[in-house]
Fold this sequence. Notes:
This protein has 180 residues and is mostly helical.
Amino acid sequence: MIPPDFDECFEALGLEPRASLAVVRARYRRLVFRHHPDRTKDDAYARHRFQQVTHAYKTLTEAYARCNSSHPFGRCQRCDEADDLFRAPDGNYYCHRCATDRRGRRSLPQPPVLVATCSGVMVALAAAALLLVQGVRTGTWGYLAASLASTGFALVWLMVLCLTIRYTVSGQQRRRAARS
Length: 180
C-alpha cells in the first residue's frame, strides 16, 4: 500500500490515487512520448512537464518496490525526502540520513537506558542460604534470624531495583507494553 503522501505523484501522472504499477507504467510511457524534449524541441512547458512526470514515475516505482520491504516507505518528517523510514524513540518517522549522523551513528534522542545488575541480590541470597545451612547444622537461632534478615534485605533490594527500572521507561512505552 502506497502512503497517502504520494497523491501529488499520482496527480502529476493524471491518475487516480492507488493506481496499479502497470497503469502507472503505461501512463508514464504515454506522457514521456508526448513531452520528450527530442520531440518538442524548445517548448519550456513540455520540458517542465517531462521532468515532473519523470520524477513522479521514479518516486512511485520506488514506493511500489519498497512496499514489501521491512521498513515503511514515505516522506521524512524532518527533510521531506521520500525514502525508507525508521521510527525514532519520539514516535516520528525519519529517513536514514536524518536518523543518523555522518558516521552512521544514531543522532536522534535515545530512550533512557538503565543497566540493572542483580549481583547484590544474588550475594544477599547466597549469604541467606549459607546462614540457613549453618543455623540448621548448629541449631542456633541467631543464624536462622540472620538468614531471614538477609532474605528480607534481598527482597527489598530486588523491589527497589524493579521500581527503578519501571520508572525509567516513558509513559508512552509503559502504555504500549501494557497493551501487548
